[in-house]
Amino acid sequence: MAITDNSIHVPTSQPRKLRKGTTWVGRNLPWLTLLPTGILGAIFIYGFIVLTIYISMSASKLVPDYTFVGFEQWAKLWGMRRWGIAVNNLFVFSGLFILFATTIGLVLAILLDQRIRHEGAIRTIILYPMALSFIVTGTAWKWILNPGLGIESLLHDWGFVEAQFDWLVRRDRAIYTVVLAAVWQSSGFIMAIFLASLRGIDPSIMQSAMMDGASSWRIYRRIIIPQLRPAFFTAVVILLHMAIKSYDLVIALTNGGPGTATDLPSTFMYDYAFDRSRIAIGAASATMMLFTIAAIIVPYLYSELRSHNRSRGHA
Amino acid sequence: MHDIVLGERSTTDRILRALVYAILIGFVLFYLAPLYVMVVTSVKSLEEILAGGLLNLPKKLDFYGWDEAWNNACVGTECRGMAPFMINSLIASTLATIIPTAIGALNGYALSLWRFKGSELFFGMLLFGAFIPFQIVLLPMASFLGWIGWSSSLTGLTFTYIVYGLPFTTLYFRNFFVSFPIDLVNAAKIDGIGYFRFFWRVALPSSVPIMIVSVIWQFTNTWNDFLFASTMTKLESATVMVALNNFVEVANGVKRYNVDMAAAIIAGLPTLVVYLVAGRYFLRGLMAGAVKG
Amino acid sequence: MATLEIVNVRKSFGAVEVLKGVDIKAEDGEFLVLVGPSGCGKSTLLNSIAGLQSNDSGEIRIDGEDVSNLHPKDRDIAMVFQTYALYPNLSVWENIAFPLESRKVAKKERRKEAERVAELLHLTDYLDRKPRQLSGGQRQRVAMGRALVRDPQVFLFDEPLSNLDAKLRVVMRTEIKKMHRTLGTTMVYVTHDQIEAMTLATKIVVLKGGEVQQVGSPDEVYNTPANMFVAGFMGSPSMNFLEGTLRQAGQEARMDIVRPDGGVVALVLPVGEALAQEFDGRKVIIGVRPEAMVDEESETKDGTYQQIDWPLEILEPTGADTIAVLQSNLEGGEEEMVARFAARTSARPGAMVQLNIDISAVVLFDPDSEKAIYHAAAPEEAGKLVHLHPARNTAG
């Protein structure tokens, strides 16, 4: 056998005892490592959040003026017609964006889950817009949607002489072009979320349902889609989060126009804080954005972290 | 794979299968169309563009748009093309990729393998920073950079990217190391292998996949960023996205769509290449930002 | 080489007290096996010895020195983990020699040490491989190599064989035993497998619910279990229990046992006058090992056999002998008994069978405390047991 008698000797190359007392630094290395990040986070995340909220309660206009005025600026903000448009647009935009991106993502995921040839290539194509900047894709969509030479002229070429597609420059329709571009960009990611979730379902569940004679429609409706509930939840949270933060796409595609027709809270904030120099109003609108996102993200993170810790259990 | 909609048994199944492929091809065309339009427009002459035919292939290849975009395009008063801005972006994104990834690796290592009282809370607090709308820090950050003399500079912008990249990189490494067997750390403790030696010799070499994820994420995000870049830079320090937007927005007279499209492709090409080369890691980064654990 | 003392160690995780004041002493060169069902606190205790967690109170002494507040690396111990804990990106030799790296041993020297240890463990051909290229048994050897290269004062093993298949487990068990004999180093070994405990240990510690049930040699733990838990846990198939009433008969006692079918059988036990008097008219539980419960055809070893009739339920031939399954009379009636019959037994399932019980190997338990009150294998201890254990009970 492996260990033969008398063949093990005490190695002489190492010191017999090592009683190097552990230093304070040695014992506290883990949190010392995190200290720089902690300080940066305390200042640049939480400190700046507090500062912005404070500015929103100050009398600041062109220059910071730290006279405390309470909720005066907030009230002013909510009284502004343009802010009303921005909030309204956010509802329309996020509602349609989530609806279409989720539906298309789910349909694509189910279709791709049918042993499709070249699945990898198709996935790559569906997802590539996520790698591009909204500025780049916004520029492209702006060209495609422009009334003179874009899709409209294409429709004319194809014989639909009466066809009109001038949504990009119509006050009442421009927001839908933003939805279109955003769905185009993000639905691939939602597809990936659903596909990952579908692949996680035990195939034997479906096989047994098939043997029981259930139709494929029924299997999807009753067995598979209910199991995608966590994926739905994730998709909606992510899309909502994206919608609230959407800024670049609007800037590149419509620049908030025509007029203020496609303003979102994000573009409103930038405009007031930097271009119109009404700092307090800008800060107040940023605060509203933060509160909205916090209301969605904090419970989400909490549930994610908790379930994650539970599943790890006690080792 | 759950091929339960489609077996290969009957005619109905075959028709269904053809339908699935038809729908998928439709979507593929939908996703490819804008890219196709960009490319063909960029190599058409302006006359041809103005004659219509959005989807037509160019009658004659014309690289005027590319030449203009790269060498002569005007951003503000600068008429030196996209090249200088590409360099600005490259500098900012490179630094904003390497530094947060390095720090994030160490952070994630400490948070998962050397937990201490409050480490979970620390992680939760930092994680929230990955989701805030950056508008909430924009005003103080601009003042801060002005105060320390970095306003409208590439240094200030890079610093901003580094600070707000840390939550993401920490998240990646933390969630990676969390599934690392804790017995490895215990063995190291007993064998007298120090905190940094274990990190350097064992943890870090094992984390190459997540390092790629982090690098791709940071590079793509900072390259594509517009909000910070448009706030923190001026003409000389502008990144390529700011330049592109500026260039497309303010062109006077006849819009030169071929130049616009060439400029857009140039600006988008680096991240597109990264995606095509390492798409798997790109997706993993996206997913890790969405579904923790 | 060192002694190891564990003095009144307590540890709680939240509201759960996992170690409830554990006292163990291991002599220099001892092979100490901590055994018990999962959740008994054996791994927690091992982690306490290793210093991977701090104790709420109590001391761990290695070679007489309290190491409770020392960092694991300063305790001069080596540990082999259940998962082997091999560093995935390091080669076999680097894994083995890694502990030396932080001790500032030169690379050439480290390689030489790794080669020396690898030779002992038959790993020489695999030195430059990565752990994922090795089989389970080879990984196990690498893990042992990493412990060996340290030459520590105490080796700790945390269920090192539980991830191996049955055959390899037996091989590695033998190797660990040889390693102990050759090195002579103090070893602490955690397992839930009582066969591993019996074969390896010089001293077994049986744990349950964070309390030490018994400390003793394999022979002591097997033949003179301190309580019903130890009796039932050690040995496979485990000890059989029957309930009955004791009647004093001079120096001896008669135990009346009511069968599940209502019939009454009796055993006469030489328990001594004191015990017979104390338990006269009281219920007791008798523990009989399967090998001390045989049929007529079995080759009986030395012993004092008495016969009782009992209904037989099932026979399971194993080749060498036949496992007989009978119903016990313990409350609930779900308990089964297992007896070891001859390969060619004449007994028939469903009928009454004559059981020969070797009363020189039985144990009596007090049904209330579940403590042993009489060991036939060591009758002189019987008196001590009665009075010693209730006292311990209040202390623990």
TrEMBL record, chain A:
Membrane-spanning residues: 29-55, 90-112, 124-144, 174-198, 219-244, 279-302
Subcellular location, principal: membrane
Domain ABC transmembrane type-1: 87-302
BP-aspect Gene Ontology terms: transmembrane transport
Pfam families: BPD_transp_1 (PF00528)
Localization terms from the record: Cell membrane
Organism the protein comes from: Aliiruegeria haliotis
Protein name: Carbohydrate ABC transporter membrane protein 1 (CUT1 family)
Signal peptide span: none
Domain of life: Bacteria
PROSITE patterns referenced in this protein's UniProt entry, alphabetically: ABC_TM1
Keywords (A to Z) from UniProt: Cell membrane, Membrane, Transmembrane, Transmembrane helix, Transport
Family, as annotated: Belongs to the binding-protein-dependent transport system permease family.
SUPFAM superfamilies from the UniProt entry: MetI-like
Classification lineage: Bacteria, Pseudomonadati, Pseudomonadota, Alphaproteobacteria, Rhodobacterales
Membrane topology label: Multi-pass membrane protein
GO CC terms: plasma membrane
TrEMBL record, chain B:
Key words, A-Z: Membrane, Transmembrane, Transmembrane helix, Transport
Spans traversing the lipid bilayer: 18-39, 90-109, 121-150, 156-177, 198-219, 261-283
Signal peptide, first to last residue: none
Keyword DNA-binding: no
Any one Gene Ontology cellular component term annotated for this protein: plasma membrane
Gene3D superfamilies membership: MetI-like (1.10.3720.10)
Subcellular compartments: Cell membrane
Pfam family, one: BPD_transp_1
Annotated membrane topology: Multi-pass membrane protein
Domain ABC transmembrane type-1: 86-278
Predominant cellular place of this UniProt entry's protein: membrane
InterPro entries assigned: MetI-like, MetI-like_sf
Domain of life of the source: Bacteria
PROSITE patterns reported for this sequence: ABC_TM1 (PS50928)
GO BP terms: transmembrane transport
Keyword match Disulfide bond: no
Family the UniProt entry places it in: Belongs to the binding-protein-dependent transport system permease family.
Protein name: Glucose/mannose transport system permease protein
Organism: Aliiruegeria haliotis
Automatic annotation (TrEMBL), chain C:
Keyword Transport carried by entry: yes
Gene Ontology biological process terms, A to Z: carbohydrate transport
Keyword Cytoplasm on entry: no
Swiss-Prot/TrEMBL keywords: ATP-binding, Nucleotide-binding, Transport
PROSITE patterns xrefs: ABC_TRANSPORTER_1, ABC_TRANSPORTER_2
InterPro entries: AAA+_ATPase, ABC_transporter-like_ATP-bd, ABC_transporter-like_CS, ABC_transpr_MalK-like, ABC_transpr_MalK/UgpC-like, Mo/tungstate-bd_C_term_dom, NA-bd_OB-fold, OB_MalK-like
Residues annotated as domain ABC transporter: 4-234
GO cellular component terms listed in the entry, alphabetical order: ATP-binding cassette (ABC) transporter complex, substrate-binding subunit-containing
Short name of any one Pfam family annotated for the protein: OB_MalK
Superkingdom: Bacteria
GO molecular function: ABC-type transporter activity; ATP binding; ATP hydrolysis activity
PANTHER family the record matches: ABC TRANSPORTER ATP-BINDING PROTEIN, MALTODEXTRIN IMPORT ATP-BINDING PROTEIN MSMX
Family designation: Belongs to the ABC transporter superfamily.
Listed name of the protein: Carbohydrate ABC transporter ATP-binding protein (CUT1 family)
